[in-house]
Each structure stands twice: as C-alpha cells, then as structure tokens.
Amino acid sequence: MEKKGLVFNIQHYSLHDGPGIRTIVFFKGCPLRCRWCCNPESQNHYPEVSYDEKRCLSSEVCSKCQKVCKNNAIIFSADGKAIIQRDKCSNCMKCIAECPAKAYKKEGTDYTAAKLLAIVEQDSVFYRSGNGGLTVSGGEPLMQGQFLIDLLKAAKKSRLSTAMETCGYADYSILKQAAEYLDTILFDIKSLDNFKHIMYTGQSNQIILNNFESLCRDFPHLHKHVRTPVIPGFNDSIEDLKKIEDYLKDKPAVTYEKLSYHRFGVGKYKTLGRKYPMDD
Ligand code: SF4
Ligand code: SF4
Question: Ligand 2 centre and the CA of 50: distance in Å?
C-alpha cells in the first residue's frame, strides 16, 4: 500500500519560504518543543481536535457535541460554552461533524504523495517567474522520512523547484536522502549554547550541528539558507548572534537570516487546550 503522510496545512502563494512564489505543505509532528512555537498544532505526530470557543452557540441552544462524546470529555462553562477536558479526549473526532457552528476542527489529514502533488501543481502558473515551487515545512518534515522522500522524488519528476524548512534534528541518513531532491534547504540554527538550547527547545543542539556539518560536507553546492528566530531571553544578545554568524563564515553556499519574534500563534494554544509557554 502507498505510504501516506500526515499534513496539517497547505498554504498557497507564500513569498517567504524559498525562492519565488511557493506552495507550502506543513507536515505534522516535531521532535522539538520550542517555547515560542507559532504552530502548536504541528507538534504532535497524530491527528487531534482543536476547538474555538468563540464559535460555540452555548448550551442554552445546543449541546450536540456533549451528547455525541462517548468519553464524557465535554462539559460547559458557567456562560454555556463547551470545554474539552483534554485528559478524557481520545481525539475520536465525533464532535466535529455534530457541531452546527463548526467550532471543532481536525488538525492533521492523511495524504498520498500523488494527491499532495496534484494540489501543489494547481499553483504551477505562479512558479514560472522567480523559480517558485514546493516547500515542505512543519512540524518537522524529516520525521516522516519515507513519505517525504516519495513526495520530493515525485516533485522532481514533475520538474518542480523544491525547498525544505527543517529544524535539523533528525537521522542524518534521512536528511541526506532528502537533500538529493532539494534545490534549497532552510535550516534553523537557534543557538550554539547547548544548555540554553535544551532549556528552550527541549533537545540538545548536537545532532542539529552535526547534521549541518555533514550537509555542508556532502552537499557543498546545495543552497543552505540558515535562519535564527531571535527570541527574547534566549538568543537575542549580540554575543549569541555573532557566535552563529562566525560559525557560518566558512560554510559553503550559505546565506543567513534572522527572524523576529512574533506572537501570531498564541491563540492556537487555547484551541488545543494548552498554555503558551512564553506567556510572560
Ligand atoms: S474528539 Fe474528544 S471531545 Fe470530541 S467527541 Fe471525541 S473524545 Fe469527545
Ligand atoms: S455542538 Fe458546537 S455549538 Fe453546540 S454546544 Fe457543542 S461546540 Fe457549542
């Protein structure tokens, strides 16, 4: 049977994630837990239900979701809004179809590579100028290694320009296979300070830096666009950023960009029943 990939979003007409105009396929599942993450729905590697309280019509007129939930996971607040008790929710998704106000949403859908490619190719008219094409992002695309390779291979067969955004935390053998089918890699280097890296992302930077070194050795001509999200209290000192710039100086085919911190994803944490880790 053809391998399927779990994707949580497909974004058309993006101008910031590789050359030209691009279609971004967001893979679900990430090995890091960056405290500033603006896509919390990307983190878990399984489909999950999100819920927008603002849409709920209130228990005065509707309680359909509560009736359908076999786990008794849904209760109502004093003002009549549904609340998911996440410790009881099994992500069965039954409440989604029941809700007349579309307050619930499934985060994560299975696609075959062929189906995804057909969607991406609908935008091909935009790719002609500026070498646009497909960008795979996440989450972390390398977590779904075989599916990622299938998709990139198929994209190359269709002569699409390919780019991948990665946190770099993966088995190098998968990264190496993916790189064979990439025109650009957008590689995050967040901090050279391992202690802070663990504190703010949940993982050591050693695998990431080793992978980056190996990538430079094995793919000297591959365009590596390194990015650092500049996060208050984590890596926003001149010293921290200079260390990264110095580290990149002798690396081949590298460009570098610092990304500013933003809080666009804060609202999404509430829809998933989680707390934004950088609330303060
Ligand atoms: S997804 Fe969760 S809240 Fe919704 S019906 Fe299933 S168990 Fe209940
Ligand atoms: S089904 Fe939708 S509108 Fe009805 S109570 Fe549940 S969340 Fe609110």
Answer: 13
What token pair was written down for 260? 């500013």
**What domain range includes position 53?**
48-106
Q: 230 and 96, same structural domain?
A: no
For the segment 97-128, what is each residue's pLDDT rounded down to a tens digit?
Answer: 999 999 999 999 999 999 999 999 999 988 88
The reported pLDDT for the residue numbered 7 is 98
Ligand 2 pocket test target in 52, 55, 57, 72 with most atoms within 8 Å of CB: 57
Give the ligand 2 atom nearest the CA of 64.
1
Q: Which residues on neighbouring strands pair with residue 162, listed in sequence order?
A: 134
Would 168 be classed as within a structural domain?
yes
The whole-angstrom separation of Cα 18 and Cα 11 is 13
Whether the predicted pLDDT of 169 surpasses 80: yes
Domain presence at residue 177: yes
Query: Residue 168 is which amino acid?
Result: G
Chain mean pLDDT for the chain: 96
Instruction: Tally the domains of the chain.
Output: 2
> What pLDDT, on a 0 to 100 scale, did the predictor assign at position 264?
86
276 domain-assigned: no
In the chain, the N- to C-terminal Cα span, in Å, equals 47
Question: By alpha-carbon position, which residue is closest to atom 7 of ligand 2?
Answer: 56
Task: Please tell me whether residues 133 and 257 are part of one structural domain.
Answer: yes
Q: Which residue has the CA at smallest separation from atom 2 of ligand 1? A: 89
